[in-house]
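User: Can you help me understand a structure? I only have the sequence.
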Amino acid sequence: MVNSSKTPTGKARKGQVTIREDSGSIKACFPRTHFADEKQVKLATGISLVEGWEAKASQLQRRLQLELDEGKLGKADGTFNKDRYHEILFEYGFRPNLRVVKGEDVVGLDSQLPPKPELSLMEVWDMYCSFRRESLAETVYQLKFKGEYLRAIKKSLDEVGERPLEIRNWLLENYSHSTVKRILSCLSEAYRLAIKQKIANQNLFDGMAEDINTKKKGERIIDQNKEIESDDDVLDKSKAYTWDEAQEILKYIQNDSSKIKHYYNLIKFKFLTGCRTGEAIAIWWADVDWGRERILLRRNYNNRLKIYKSTKNDTTRMFPMPRDGELWNLLKSIPQGEPNENLFKNKAGKAINADSLQRVWHGYEASRNKGIIPELIKQGKVKKYLPCYNTRHTFITHQIFDLGRDSAIVNTWCEHSEEMSRKHYRDIAKYATQINPELPANNQQSEFNLLNEQLRKQQELIDKLLKDKE
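Assistant: Let's start by predicting it. Here is the structure, written out as tokens:
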């Protein structure tokens, strides 16, 4: 901060002009007592937040203080004189001359406008975010561009100032290489946009993202309680509960007095369908097609932002729900609501909170919640702790290894293979909805024969992809 004479407390004396950093830019603050309306005047100076800015600010502060003391920054009516302030900034080269239009005449200090002042990094970033907002998913915009990336940029500015190379190096020391590469790429794109708009002269981050190795080096600190939501290991039996263990989990929840019983329907649904937690929470009654005996999975719920969005791969999946089967009866046991109401609700009648579900699953000491899985491990009914997300792994391994289900069918239900093309997904989707997920595969040979005949070539590709993953 650049101030005039200070009091022993470090604050500027009453009636003094101060120039300081504010929200990523350098601003001049004028005392209320000098103006009739007694309003705080805080204006941008046009000084760039780069190394050595304090010297420029100090020089400008002395000039503004002199002008204030001489009454030149006040109008006849006692309000602040912005025109005079702009003239001073122009004189110091911090902003172009603003011409005042009076009738047909143009009055100004110079008929030729000098270049616009250089924008601060934060001003360029804000402009870029506004430009990109419409093209980004709301979750990406809020969590990444206005969340993770913005916090990282602000921290780097606090540590090293507005020096591009130092910003790059500081980010690499404090964040993963993949995150830094994305941030620097965005900053470079932001400056390219600013240059096109003729509000910046050069791209300060041009080429900065190049040659950054994004190969994972491992976490410096590993959080044992971190929930991992990845589909890379869904065929790994060690990441899934046995089907008997799944039944013990459901039995434990169902027999609970009242504290966690309302989670029973959601968790059983996850075990019976293998869908992701956000997908299960996002199901509305309009997604239950009783006539065609199926459930439509067409959206996800973001717990942090409290919004609905499309599924991970932007598809609408159809999951079979055979009449009078276990899944059918589960949904029939739930009082049906309006088409746009959630199936699974908490005690207050609202959509279940994913964070609350995790705490119930693994325990939460602050609320004396022992946790479903830790308690079952103590009782010897479950061998190990796995995150609630792994109900998905349990369903998939149960279908493929216990029931002998074709992996192409399971993929169509769950979309667990990202290598699977959307065309192939559409090819087998109509057959997959005819398969009963509650019966062993050998009871449905006619459907498999038809499927294998139609998709022999595609299946060979899937087998190769799965083999490459091992």
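Now, to help you interpret it: The chain has three domains: 2-107, 121-196, 237-469. The radius of gyration is 31 Å. Let me know which part you'd like to focus on.
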